[in-house]
């Protein structure tokens, strides 16, 4: 059911863009112009859960795939997000294997976890139309991505990546750099050594890798390193770039 998960399993590097503005029109425009995977940014972007659902519907209607980055990993929020139909989820600031296990437990029904049950009446089950949703399909469909963006997570990365129920480790370079006293020093050797440590441990655990583009981390570089999910530009940056270019052109007239 989860086409994004199937693409990752096939060995593809999936390339995506961020949706920050909670605008269904902007997200649809991005899909229709080549960005078929959109990550809705619930951590730093605009809006709440029902805004994200509206954006997701626009993306899906245009033929795209949706990932949601939640603002935090509480049981209550994860339950609501899953019930409302999100099945590819990024959880930020997961700093230990214990945190990862708790998040995985919140996302899966018993006996695998402790997700609260309302399977027949939620959007996640197609309002009761997905066979076996509560007894296994939901867990199989879920793509659970945890963000490694702190030095504490790097220190515990082997156990964190090996956590049952975690499918991908997503490196957040900027926050990881900040936790190491290297904020905005994204080419620092110590930071790249941490990247390599996370990459090696995640591969050894048999899990997928994800991250964002940045200095020394181009689409080609990250594809060559075997990253499964790479997220680059966002709707705000597209608007800024277009506005600047148009203003510069107008100033010539």
TrEMBL record:
Residues 18-216 form the HpcH/HpaI aldolase/citrate lyase domain. The keyword Zinc does not apply. SUPFAM superfamilies: Phosphoenolpyruvate/pyruvate domain. GO terms for molecular function: aldehyde-lyase activity; metal ion binding. This is 4-hydroxy-2-oxoheptanedioate aldolase. Keywords: Lyase, Metal-binding. GO terms for cellular component: cytoplasm. The keyword Isomerase does not apply. It comes from Paracoccus lutimaris. Pfam families: HpcH_HpaI. InterPro entries: Aldolase/citrate-lyase_domain, HpcH-HpaI_aldolase, Pyrv/PenolPyrv_kinase-like_dom, Pyrv_kinase-like_dom_sf. Belongs to the HpcH/HpaI aldolase family.
